[in-house]
Every structure is written in C-alpha cells, then in structure tokens.
Amino acid sequence: MALAHNLGFPRIGADRELKKALEAYWKGDLDQAALQSVGRELRAAHWQLQKDAGIDLLPVGDFAWYDQVLTHSLTFGVIPERFAGVTNEKGLPILDTLFAMARGASSACCGGNHGTAQYAQELTKWFDTNYHYLVPEFTRDQHFKLSWEQLFEEVDEATALGYTVKPVIIGPLTYLWLGKAKGDSFDKLELLDRLLPIYGEILGRLAGQGVEWVQIDEPILSLDLPQDWKNAFERAYHSLQYSPLKKLIATYFGGLEDNLGLAVALPVAGLHVDLVRAPEQLPALLDRLPTYKVLSLGVVNGRNVWRCDLEAAREGLLEAQLRFADNLWVAGSCSLLHSPVDLEREDQLDAELKSWLAFAKQKCNEISILSTALNDPQAERVQTAFAESRAVQLSRQQSPRIHKPEVQARVAAITPADSQRQSAFAERIDLQRARLNLPAFPTTTIGSFPQTASIRLARQSWKQGKLSANDYHDAMRAEIRHAVNTQELLGLDVLVHGEAERNDMVEYFAEQLDGYAFSRFGWVQSYGSRCVKPAVIVGDLSRPQAMTVDWIEYAQSLTDKVMKGMLTGPVTMLMWSFPREDVSRKVQARQLALAIRDEVVDLESAGIKIVQIDEAAFREGLPLRRAQWTEYLDWAVEAFRLCASGVRDETQIHTHMCYSEFNEVIASIAAMDADVITVETSRSDMELLEAFKAFDYPNDIGPGVYDIHSPRVPDKAEMMTLMNKAVQRIPAERLWVNPDCGLKTRARPETEAALVNMVAAARQLRAELA
Ligand code: GLN
Ligand code: ZN
C-alpha cells in the first residue's frame, strides 16, 4: 500500500490562535497553563484534521512555540551563556528561556544575571522561503546535552489520542549548517561528533515510546555543499545506522543534483524528495535508489496556494510505483508550514477562484487522494476528485480572468530598447544635477514615515465602513502635510510623502493591479507570532489606472523642494506574493514591470523629478543553487530596467535595498543602472561598501547612516564616522546621506531626533569635504 504522509502542518492555527495566545502571554494577559492548553488544542485539532483528510502517518514535532530550529537548540542544550539567568534551578531551559532567546530578555522580566538586557538570537530566512528561523549560536567548546522534553511529550500526547505518528526532527548536518560559530573562529563541522550521540539518545527514546518511523529533515542536500560536508553526511548516518527506528531523510526546496548519489546511498530506510521544485530528478532516483528503501515523493506543492493538478502528479507516482510498489509514499513537497491553513474559511472568494485553490487542509486531502489513486484507482473518491481536478485545470486554461491577450501582446512586444535608458549614466547624471540643484551629500529618507496608531485606526475604520472614503482621503492628506512639514523643518533635501496611505509596500500596489486576488485568512507564519498574508497572482497583470500620482502630486504641491515618487519594484512584488504556476516567474515579473513602468512615466508627466523603485527582495530571490543564479539575475535585472527606462534622462531613478550582502550580486545591482541606490550599511559598519569599492560601482549611492530597526537615536558623530568611511571608498560627489530603511515602524520623536542629527552630519560633511 502506498502510504500518505505529511512533512509538517502549519502550527499557527486557522484563526491564528497561537499568535494570539503567544502575544497575550507575553503581555501578561494569559498564564502559562492557558498558553500550554492552546498549544495542546491546536496540536490535537491538527492531527485530527490530517487524519480525517486521510493522512496515514501524522507528523509530530512540527509544532513550535516560536520556531522549530529554536526548539532544536533547546533540545540539544545549545543555549548561549547570556540566557543562563533564565533557566530553572537545574540550569535547564524553561518556556521563558525559549522566549528570551527568541525575543531578547530585559533584566526586569527574567532577573537577568548581568543586570542588563540580553539580546535575542539572530533571525534569518529559512532557505528561500519567507519563514525566518533563529540562528543557533555555537562556541568552540560547545557541549550538547538533551535538555528539552517537548518532542517526547508530544509523541505521548499523540499516542494517547490514538494517532500513528512520525516524529520530525532536523538532521544533524542541516542543524549545524544553519548555526553560526561564535567567539574565536572554528569549523562548525568539528561539533558533529559531539552532537551525534544526542541524536542517538533521541532515537532511542522515541523507539521506547513505540515509534516506528522518524523523519529527519536534511534540506541542505538541495544546496551546493562543500566536499567536507558531503563527507560528513556519510560519516553521520553511518554512525546513526545502528540506532533504532526507520529513518526517512527528507529533502526539499530543490533537487538533489550532485548530492543524489550521496543521498541514495545513505544507510537509512527512506528518502523524501521534492518533485514540485525538481521533477527532473525522478528518473535518476528511480534508477539509483534501492527499491528496498522507501521513496517518498513530494508532489503536492507545500509552498503555494494552487490546487494540485492530480493527473499530472499521478504520472510520476505511477512510474515510481512500477519500481517501488508498496515502498512508495506520497507527500507534500515540503512542510505545509508555508501554506495558509484552511480554504474553507474564505467566505469572500468567488466560487470559481476558490475552486482553483488549496490551503494546507485541502492539500492533505490531495495527498491522500493521490495515494488512494495508487492503491485503489477505481475508488469513487478518486474518480470524483480526478474529474474535479480535470475540470479545474480546464477552466483555468481557458479563463479570461487569467489570460489577457492585451497583456500578453504587450509582453511579447518588449524589445531590448525598452530596458535601456536614453543615455548612459554619465550623461544622465549631469542633466539631473543641473535640474535638481541639490547640495553635495544630499539628504533623503527611504520613503515611509512613522505609521502612527491614528493612521492605522483611520485605515481600519475606512475598511470597516466607519469612515467615508472622503474622510479617509482627507486624513491621509493631513498625514502627508505633516510629513512634508516635518521634512522641511528638518532641512532635508529630497522629500517623500511618507506612505501614510499604504498598509504594506506590496499589498498596496497589488490591490490596485488587475490580476491579483486576496484571501481573508490566508496567513502564513513569518517568524514567531508574526504572520503575513501574501496576495495571490491569479492572472495576467496590468494597471487599470494610475496608482500613486494623486498622492505624490499633492505632496509636491506642498513644497518647493524635490518630492520623490515611491513605488515597489517588480521582483519584490513577485517574491512577496503567491505566484502563478502556469507561467514562469520571468513572465510575471515582466508584466509587473510594464505596469510599474507606466506609473513611473505618469509620475514624470505629473512633474515628479525623482522616482524611487524599491527592490527590497531582489537579493532574496536568488536561487539556492548557484547554477541557477544567472538565469534569475538576468530576468530580475531586466524587469527593473523595464520599469525604469520609460522616462527622460533628466528624471532620476532611485532604488532601495535593505540588506548588506551584496558581494555576490554587485555586478547585477550595477546592471540595474538606477541613478541612485540606497542600501543598508549601518549595522555592518559600512562593510558592504567594500563590495562597492572592489567592483567600482559606477552610480550614486546612499549608504544608510543609521539603523532604523532600533529606537536608539545615533548622534551626529556616529553618522560622521560612517560617512567618513564611505568617503574613503566612494567619490564624495556620488554619495547621498539617508537612513538605512523606511521609518514606518519607528515613533515620531526618535525619528525626528535621528533625522536632526543626520542633517547636521550632512552639513558638516559639506563644510569639510565638498
Ligand atoms: N519605501 C519603503 C519604506 O520606506 C521601503 C521599505 C523596504 O525597503 N522594506 O517603507
Ligand atoms: Zn529597506
């Protein structure tokens, strides 16, 4: 019998119950027993739901109070010294240790042992998803010790409820790979031999609880791995070979490629692969994985919201069934953590659109249908589901709300000249300087001003129908006036309107484009209690009318200074949405680019002299495998240039990127050919500028002089120090002075105080250097 299993289910709850409980607990409005019971209820509900959907082996260990990697750090006793004051009397972690590691701890809340605040562990992206994990911190003398009982307790909990479970743990190599060596530098791999006995212990304990299978996630097998890490795989799994339990190694987010030989030869009982991301690996797997092992095929996409094309998914399964027979398992491509929870709750989607979608709960059903289709092809349930699936595919292929001939024709007509400014930067910048008449070291901000409670309340009231559209409009205009006034008083050179009218830099534009749809409850965990609700790209994208021109024109009318128009770029729009699967990312990016290009041109026609096109997600779009970088960078750069190239030379195009790891993509950043780029540099102490220097970045740069992620107000001297470093690497006439990201999450007083210092720093630079 082919078996249906699931790599993991979203923990947050269909109603974001976990988010709400966590936040109430942190505020002190909910006690720990109540929080624990919310967790227990969610786990029980999720197991039942998966079982009802027809999943045979249920995951345990996919629940986490904050993040699954953090749970592992607690399990292994990888708890940085600075949290020693938040443990129990035996020095073991408690729930508040976990939260302190995730969120930082103030001395007030945990009696911090040094009497100072303990900063949280670093958050970083989980592979190429928008989920963020807490980076384990290793020291050279790192000691591992089984320190956290959660997994075993949850196995007992599930068993007591009568479920057959498969515990899920992150494998030793992936866990080490995700962490960071702290203190004197050393190779993390040296820790492997000390870590493996803990895995042995865990497997032994699980076996004692009556478990048969364990899923060991090693997603790094889909990355380009250094040779010593490949070797370590063999060593690690040989050493775990004689520990009890059948081990299923799970890989996802890409193909095994050069690691395939290694993966199929590991001494384990089964291998899971992601056939959604890498369908091309199937023949090699069928050829090389011994048939006494289990082959688990991830055929239902765990990372998107589209209903599975059952017919297409079954093809690969049938082929595999010929060889693997009962040793074939069916699963989602990866954990369903990255999908929203339950489509049934969407009461405001029209029936047609709803019939095209599947969230986690529906995906479990699809997994089970596909396994039944192998075991009992004639079953009525299978016949019905396949008939429905065929109808859905057909309706999508023909739907006029997806396929728009005008949009396609316009994309087809794109020529290389469309992504080419009229003249080269050297000529453009002279025209721009003459027109803009800015001082040396011009000051500006990244776009948003503080989103105050009253702004959010106004928007909420308007959406609930309690505030009329006119009143909302007036309230936002008042906010714009306030932002413009503030900037004039501060003495900034290039002003922004402050983005008061925007809820989110992607959603705001998505709502105005044709081809997007929105769910009401499609939340996906981003980190901890934070969830995002990405917009869904349903069909060909276009801009029915101008999106920002009225606001920006109004802002410009309030001042004689230059007002910068503010847009979100195509790559960022795409990365932070659920994309289509029936056309490539490149096509979607080009459609978005044309829509944004029209907006840039409209802003220019309205007299706006500078337009910023934010590409916050440009770097994160990089594929996991290096071999795929060029293809991505080519279309991503082209999409940006398409947006930027519809205007005259004297119109200045800015872009903004809020991160600092540029070294590997600097040539592509330069190829975007924005006249000015603003970047994050303050946290890395201008280190990033090394990349700009080594590569000889040709255009203007605004290296962020202060970190907006913290309420701290840096003084003028601090900003001067950073700018003086910048001046050593980049010619002064090409430097701008600005914060390192938008100010929307900050409060007004600290923002204004920091900007006063920033303007003063720029003035001093002018006096000293210009
Ligand atoms: N213009 C946006 C803002 O200022 C940019 C945000 C971002 O890069 N994440 O908020
Ligand atoms: Zn930013």
What distinguishing features does this structure have?
TIM Barrel; 2 domains; binds glutamine; 12% strand; amino-acid biosynthesis; 8-stranded parallel β-sheet; binds zinc ion; alpha/beta; 6-stranded parallel β-sheet; metal-binding; zinc ion binding
What features would you describe in this structure?
- It is a single chain.
- Residues 107-115 have low confidence and may be disordered.
- The longest helix has 22 residues, at 32-53.
- The protein contains 28 helices and 22 strands.
- It is an alpha/beta fold and 770 residues long.
- The protein is globular, with a radius of gyration of 27 Å.
- It has two domains: 3-111 and 121-398, TIM Barrel, CATH 3.20.20.210; 406-769, TIM Barrel (Alpha-Beta Barrel), CATH 3.20.20.
- The structure holds glutamine and zinc ion (ZN).
- The site of zinc ion has 6 residues, from loops.
- InterPro entries: Cbl-indep_Met_Synth_N (IPR013215), Cobalamin-indep_Met_synthase (IPR006276), Met_Synth_C/arc (IPR002629), UROD/MetE-like_sf (IPR038071).
- The active site is at residue 709.
- GO terms for molecular function: 5-methyltetrahydropteroyltriglutamate-homocysteine S-methyltransferase activity; zinc ion binding.
The major β-sheet equals:
8 strands, parallel
Q: What structural class do the secondary elements suggest?
A: alpha/beta
Can you list the strand order of the major beta sheet? Answer: 1-12-11-10-9-8-6-2
CATH class of the largest domain: Alpha Beta
What share of residues is helical?
A: 40-55%
Dominant shape: globular
Rg (C-alpha, Å): 27 Å
- CATH architecture of the largest domain, by name, is Alpha-Beta Barrel
**Distance N to C terminus:** 77 Å
Helical run tally: 28
Low-pLDDT runs: 107-115
Here the CATH topology of the largest domain equals TIM Barrel
Mean pLDDT over the full residue set: 95
State the total count of DSSP E strands.
Answer: 22
Number of domains: 2
Small molecules held by this entry: glutamine, zinc ion
Strand portion: 5-15%
GO biological process, one term: L-methionine biosynthetic process
Protein name: 5-methyltetrahydropteroyltriglutamate--homocysteine methyltransferase
InterPro entries: Cbl-indep_Met_Synth_N, Cobalamin-indep_Met_synthase, Met_Synth_C/arc, UROD/MetE-like_sf
EC number: 2.1.1.14
